[in-house]
Peptidase U62
Amino acid sequence: MFDGQKAIRIAQKHGAAYCDIRIENITKNGITIENGIIEQSTIIQDSGIGIRVLYDGAWGFFSTSHSDKIEDGIISAIKAAKSIQKKAKIALSDISVQQKTINYPIQKEIDVSEMTKISQDLDKTIRQNPKISKSLVSGIITLTGKYFESSEGAKITQNYTDSTIDMVATAHQYGMTQSINITEGGRGGLEKLANVFDVASEISDNTASLLDAKQPKEEKAALVMNPDFVALLTHEILGHPSEADRVLGKEMAWAGGAWWAGMLGQKVGSQSLNVIDDPTIPGSLGWYEFDDEGVKSQKKKLVEDGILVNHMHSRETASMFGVEPNSSMRATSYGFMPLIRMACTCIEAGNWDPQEIIKDTKHGYYISNMKVPSIDMKRHNWSISAQYAHKIENGEIGELLRDVIIVGTAPEFFSSIDACGNDFTVRPITNCGKGDPMQQMKMGNGGPTIRGVATIRGIS
């Protein structure tokens, strides 16, 4: 067992001005089915403590899964903080200190045997189409217990379950291979997987259809993007650049810049563009009541009517910007220092019926579902591949297209948005990487159907 109060007392005894601890217990149950065969069944359990100390205006950090190593670890963390050559000492914005226990609700319990049965049935559903050559289904149930305590008096316990399923359908014929992958699920139990069989049938049929599809010709055109594609676009080009450490140039790993650095109060998109980050959305993988600094979660407006109005902040960066911290600090586990991370960054809904956006488009393309992003260091120039697309002619959906890539620049594209649908949707993101060493984080991203102008092209 780990004693958080003891760790804090040790840190204070050795001169730390501030200390917080995170004690975590994580159990992950996973099942992988490939073409009807159980390829992997895993149970991973991990527990430990992460200790963050502020000494003479610099951070030190230590983590361990062994309770007998805490004092030596705290001393090493303080030594590390002492050794940092500081241009300016770190200051923390004040917060309301909380003591609370939160057990996040589950509407329908799910266990390993049920997840295994669901995954097997999904695999069968995907393989019902005779053109499917490979099906891959991975179901994961993650149980997390987190306890946060600080030298300021915070004591916060949060317990939650995440249920997710990854599905991949691959079709092969006449030397051509096509695949579609998708993730479903969220924070909760079986209720977060309610639509997975419909999704499995859809990706199976669409994958098979792509074998007969053509690539698009390169063209700059009106693009109507579905919420799944918008989720990745928002994540990469609006979410990461909103993280204040990246705005300040302090976190340059993994394309760590921000194209709108220094542009607070300036126009960054059309009046139709409104962007939020909201950890209070129930069921999202980014749903939490307190971040990993003990800051109460809140919905934050990042872009309002096309104007950049705020960033995501830690207590440290909030002090630098002279604003309130806004519950944006999270770590992958007790083993890492918290970083500024998205919770659930989304483009807000508009008033358009999605079908009316399509009907209003004389010539363009309907872009469906996220695939792979490619971005420059400041996320100004970007290309994101889509699972597939359709031509739009005279307001009607037409020819199916494969191997689709969308290319644009951030200011030009977001200034071109002229329609946002009323079909706001949050999608699960399970593998966002940031930091050095890299931390993978789960979160939500999303938005509605939107229309803007960018370049569509094929892979070759």
Q: What stands out?
A: The longest strand covers residues 37-55. Residues 112-127 form the longest helix (16 residues). The chain has a mean pLDDT of 97. The chain is about 20% helix and 40% strand.
